[in-house]
Amino acid sequence: MKKQPKKGKLIIFSAPSGSGKTTLVRYLLEKPELNLAFSVSVASREKRQGEEHGKDYYFISPEDFKQKIKNNEFVEWEEVYTNSFYGTLKSEIERLQKQGKNIIFDIDVKGGLNIKNQYPDESLAIFVMPPSIDELAQRLKKRKTESSEKIQMRINKAEEELYYAPQFDVILHNNNLDEAKKKAYKIVSEFINQDKK
Q1: Which domains does the chain have, with CATH numbers?
Q2: Distance from C-alpha of 28 to C-alpha of 188, rounded to nearest angstrom
C-alpha cells in the first residue's frame, strides 16, 4: 500500500463574537513556519464591508445552504440566528489536508466542539476568553457594524457560550492582545511539532 502523505493537524479557535479570535487567527496565518491554511466557512448572510467571497467566507443563500445540509456536505453547521447559517464543508478540510497543510478554524463555539468530536486525535480546540462580558459589549459597539439589537443578541449568545469553555483543550485569556498572540503562537507551535522527532 502506498504511504499517505502526513495529514495536517486541525487547530480550532472558538469564542464569543468580539473576543479577538479572528485577530489571533490572522496573526498566526502570517507565520509561515506553522504551515497553516485557513478553513473558509460557508455563511448564508450578507457580506460585510471589506469581506471577500472565498477568502473570509463562501457566501451563499439560505436555500443553497439548506440544500448542502440535505446533501450531507458539512462537517458541522449551525443556524446561529433565523436563516443565518454558518458551516464547514467536508470538501474544504479534504482540499487543505491534500496540500499537507495544518488547518486553522475561526469558528463559533458549538461548531468548534463538533469538529473536535469528529477529529479527536488530530485537532486542538482553543477557547478565546474575553476579559468580561462588559468588555465584549464595548468591543462589539466599537466595530459599528451592527444594530444595538444585534449586539444584544450577540451578548446573550456570548453568555451562553462561556459555559462551553471547559470542554475545550485550552482556554486562552485575551486580556492583552500582545500577550494573547504570544501565548497562541506557543500553544499552536507546540501542538504542531509534538510528534516530530
Answers
A1: 10-193 (3.40.50.300)
A2: 9
